Amino acid sequence: MKSYRRWKFFWMDHWIKIAIVAASLILILLSIWGMASLESYYRNITLAQLPLQMIIMVINAVVFAYIYMVLFRGNLGNLEKKKNIAAKDVNVKFSDVIGIDEAKEECWEVVQLIKDHARLKKIGGKILRGILMMGPPGCGKTYLAKAIATEAGLPFLSMAASEFNEIFVGVGASRVRQLFKKAARMAYGFGGCIVFIDELDAMGHRRTFSQFGSGEGNTTQNQLLVAMDGLGEKTENIVVIGATNAAEDVLDPALLRPGRFDRKVYIKKPNLEGREALFKFYLGKVKHEASVDCKRLARKAVDKSPADIENIVKESALIATRNKRDSVTLKDISEAIERIELGVKQKLTINVKEREMTAYHETGHLIVTYLLHPRDDVFKASIIPRKMSLGVVHPTPIEEWHLNDRESMLAEIKVCVASYVAEKIKFGTTTTGVGGGPGSDFYQATNYANAMVWKYGMGPSGLVGDYTVAPQLLSEEMKTRLNQDVDKILKDCMAEVDTLLRKEKDIFERFAHELLQKNELDYDEIEAIFMEYGKANPRRAHLTQGGTPPAV
What is the CATH architecture assignment of 272-342? Predict the structure, then answer.
């Protein structure tokens, strides 16, 4: 029965090609028979004209095919050419999906439902029509969809939502119909099919309506809704998986109702254990020194996605190769993180005065981050130009946090204004390096202070509420009070930083001189200098000794 279905599926999928080949053979045989019956004179004339006629026929066929595919079938040729990927060819198992265990558990239930379809049908249940995977880029949504197809033993058909969008009305809808028609044939031949639509928000965003019509985007989405509703008894083993990086409220509510994308799987960035497992997995694919501590790397890679970690390992292998080493070292991995996040070192000529001011500027950031920030650590300090800056202090979170409190937001402000205070203490003046638009120290400090007062009720006056909702309704007196709170937070933070840097003058000068001599300081060098002055922070001990970080 199964072999019959697959033969039938093959015939359904290729009957046009078979018919064309058969017709061509018949025409060739008829032509040969007809030529044999002609007189030699007419036969020679016919043979002489044959090449020209063939060229004209080919040109006509190409022109007709182009018009047909573009105007009448919405350029569906690309869709038809998409290979039916069998489960064995996908070959992504659940054991290959690392760092997203919670999402794996949810999807494993779906696999079991597909496999135990007969039992589910017996008790009157129905399989899930659709699964929506939501999460940041690079967290493994596509990989997990492939794992579902492999474990369920079903063919896998993947398309990006942008492939459905066209300027011509009706083209996108035609492509959706063709996709689900293809999926239905595959389900008939193989007992089921996984349809994966990546970046679903490109075609599933909230519909808009106007007096000029609904537009091509709405038409395409409407066809998707109808197609998912049309997954009846004969095609109930078709599971549609959508993936998006957008927020849930971006998508149209009609897509999210039960009967369409019945289940939402939220895929988050991996935790500490997940990151450690990912480093072990990707480092296992390259030669690396046995001394490389994956647990320590996992603590340095807070907030990194699986794709980020894979990229770090790839970049570290390139760096090791460039440095003529046979294996990847911890230094290579650190340099890879640095290159990815900070950018490539630039050969920029800097005069002595600018270099000195940059060193003290970055020293301010370094000391305040280490001594006052409850959540961040200093991964690297450098006065080598990168991207658009003359120097950089690269902080990394000590551990995972999902909310900010008043202490952490004040710490961010103190770190930002530390450069201004450091320049002021050393030189009595400041540079334009503290300002300059988005991303600059003053911009970030002011943004944090504004958020504390205007949004989160963390201002010194005790005003509570989100005043950014309707600022035009606020009185001038209220706006003045709010802005005064912002100004007070900034000045209080500057005063505290000024007191700290003057108190720790010896450390301040030491780090500045070290940067001027070495250009860069790594984590271990920074930690050693602080310990030399008796300033080791107990919250950072777990980074070198292992174990769980103490509570803040």
Answer: Orthogonal Bundle (1.10)
